[in-house]
Design brief:
heterodimer; A: alpha/beta; Rossmann fold; 6-stranded mixed β-sheet; 4-stranded antiparallel β-sheet; 7 helices; 33% helix; globular; B: alpha+beta; 2 domains; 10-stranded mixed β-sheet; two-stranded antiparallel ribbon; 14 helices; 57% helix; elongated
């Protein structure tokens, strides 16, 4: 009997009801991801990338199918269980950074650590990570005082502060110029190579996808090709 | 760059010392949440200030009403004690100890009471209500002077002519009156003959027979004040008088003045409840609007917090903390504003009203403001809790 992959998705479907119409965002998707793998999920708008992102992150339940992360079945989790899973198992990096505007960069990171039940202290190893991300000197600033690239790096620090099993990045370079995009992608690659962080990155940018170990292409809610 | 292994090992080491640092950690967490609460409120300063002001007005409304009610009644009690009497006999038919009868008693009754054992002095007065808290009192000046020790005039002197009037200093100050000023009351023109120190029976006094004539009640009195030979026996004398004159409400002055409390005056008590109710509704609506708008505006932020694993309880607690902050600051500002209303009353309406600082009502009013505000935050809070994280994250 072969060992279950770190992430195993089987016949995953998601149907939304919009008015009187059923929208089939995912139509029986299968995906296996090994621990420590860096995967780029590529596809056009409406292909189901974001829905997959939301289900993997426990933000929304699937309609049918199964999804296992580290052996745990997400598909039958209650809301409270999925909330609990988001604290330490998944870290999110969004296209629009999604930092809390009223808190400093440091407090944006600390509050996630606190929510994860890990106190608020940013320990010495994590301080090294902050230096690697190039934001150690900018932690006291509010998001509005940071550039887009800096905000995204704070968002990455926030996403990994609780050492989650998976880092989910949804178009992390979508709002950045080419220089900052490259810096962020290199950081993700570094996190993957040096920390062994499993990363799933959604992108429609082929160049960004080239930083990943593997690209999976989605179309009409299904996995059509992997390379 | 730390390796994953180092990262985890050092974290494990930190974990082992966690118990010893638990207290410090709790304190830091509390500081972080407090910082978030303050930061969220400071992010919208105008709305925050308006919410605080609305809660403050709610608090001021209640405290001012209670303060004026208490102050005015206590001032009445002080003036009643200033009459020097030991016993008060009121006209039959008064619905309570504090209301005037619609059928005043005959002034012949004063002489009858003078004949009773232990009564050394008796004087009747007539009280005619004016507007709001004001009354005009007709007195037998000679008798009243013997009983109370007399008025201490700061300007002028006692009434000489029929249409002379004397008033106390606060009333004179409020109405800008001096000796010689003409005042129109009860459709009559009165001349101020003297201004006296406050604390004696009434604010506005005229000759008893003149007031009886002007009001169409010749030979009638509202009440009779009695002085006894031994003040310590006032209650037993009252008991004896009640047996002789059962239809007359008769009280010791001590008991009568003790009735001059908000809780004893049904109308004031009910009015206070109405104001508290209105104030609570105002506070509820203001906080409801403020927090509802805050939840709408912060939809995306709430989505972020949910995405990183915030429980419904934490999001609700965050909003309730903000509400509590508004309510507490609003209460403090409201209490401070009552000193402003006190100053305004002292300077612009000293004759009609007296506002006391009723410390016992500070925590009560604070609790009313907090409960009303928290009630106003519940619906917006539940809306925030029920928001779908994915929809919230895509909110623009």
């Amino acid at each position: 009997m072969s060992e279950m992959p770190f992430i195993q998705v089987r016949q995953l479907t998601k149907t939304y009801r919009v008015g009187d119409v059923d929208v089939h965002a995912l139509r029986g998707m299968d995906l296996d991801v090994a621990k420590g793998e860096f995967i780029a999920v590529v596809g056009s708008s409406g292909s189901g990338k974001s829905t997959l992102f939301n289900i993997l992150g426990g933000l929304t339940p699937p309609s049918t199918g199964s999804i296992h992360i580290g052996g745990k079945d997400l598909s039958h989790m209650t809301n409270a269980e999925r909330t609990n899973m988001r604290k330490n198992t998944v870290g999110f990096v969004f296209q629009k950074y999604n930092l809390l505007p009223t808190l400093s960069a440091e407090d944006n990171i600390k509050i996630v650590k606190y929510i994860g039940g890990n106190g608020t202290d940013l320990d010495s190893p994590f301080q090294d990570v902050l230096h690697l991300l190039g934001i150690a000197e900018r932690l006291k600033h509010k998001p509005r005082a940071l550039s887009g690239g800096q905000q995204q790096r704070v968002a990455i620090a926030r996403a990994i502060v609780n050492r989650p099993a998976i880092l989910l990045a949804d178009e992390p370079t979508g709002n950045l110029d080419s220089q900052n995009s490259m810096a962020v992608l290199k950081l993700l690659k570094d996190l993957n190579e040096r920390l062994g962080q499993t990363i799933l990155m959604i992108t429609h940018d082929e160049e960004a996808a080239s930083y990943a170990h593997r690209k999976v292409h989605m179309k009409d809610g299904q996995l059509v090709r992997t390379a | 760059m730390p390796s994953m292994g180092v990262f985890r090992n050092e974290n494990a080491a930190a974990h082992s010392s966690r118990d010893t640092q638990q207290q410090e950690k709790c304190s830091r967490i509390s500081i972080l949440l407090t910082k978030l609460t303050f930061a969220n409120r400071a992010h919208r300063p105008v709305r925050t200030l308006l919410s605080i002001l609305a809660i403050a007005v709610e608090v001021t409304m209640i405290l001012t009403l209670v303060g004026v009610s208490n102050g005015t009644l206590h001032e009445s009690a002080r003036r009643a004690r200033g009459s020097g009497a030991d016993i008060l006999v009121r006209a039959p038919g008064a619905s309570s100890a504090l209301t005037l009868s619609s059928s005043p008693m005959s002034d012949k009754f004063v002489n009858i009471l003078r004949q009773e054992p232990h009564i050394v002095l008796a004087t009747g007065t007539m009280v005619q209500p004016l507007e709001l808290f004001d009354t005009i009192t007709g007195i037998d000046l000679d008798q009243f002077t013997r009983m109370s020790g007399g008025f201490r005039f700061t300007q002028g002197g006692p009434p000489v002519n029929d249409m002379d009037m004397i008033v106390d200093e606060p009333y004179a100050r409020e109405k800008h009156l001096r000796v010689g000023s003409i005042v129109t009351l009860l459709t009559q023109k009165w001349t101020i003959s003297g201004i006296y120190e406050p604390g004696k029976l009434a604010r506005i006094c005229v000759k008893l027979p003149v007031l009886q004539r002007v009001t169409g009640n010749p030979g009638r009195l509202s009440q009779v004040y009695l002085k006894v030979d031994d003040s310590g026996k006032a209650q037993s004398i009252v008991d004896a008088l009640r047996k002789t004159y059962p239809e007359y409400p008769i009280y010791t002055m001590e008991y009568y003045t003790s009735l001059l409390q908000v809780s004893s005056v049904g109308l004031l008590r009910n009015f206070t409840y109405v104001v508290i109710g209105v104030a609570m509704i105002v506070g509820f609506i203001v906080v409801f609007m403020a927090m509802y708008t805050a939840v709408l505006e912060r939809t995306r932020e709430i989505g972020i917090l949910k995405a990183v694993g915030s429980s419904s309880g934490m999001i609700l607690s965050m909003l309730l903390r903000e509400t509590l902050l508004l309510a507490v600051i609003g209460t403090i500002v409201g209490i401070l504003l009552t000193y402003v209303t006190q100053w305004l009353i002292v300077h612009f309406a000293p004759g009609g009203m007296t506002q006391e600082t009723v410390y016992a009502w500070w925590p009560i009013t604070g609790a009313i403001a907090i409960v009303g505000s928290l009630a106003g935050a519940i619906v917006p809070g539940l809306k925030a809790v029920r928001q779908d994280a994915t929809e919230a994250l895509s909110y623009e």
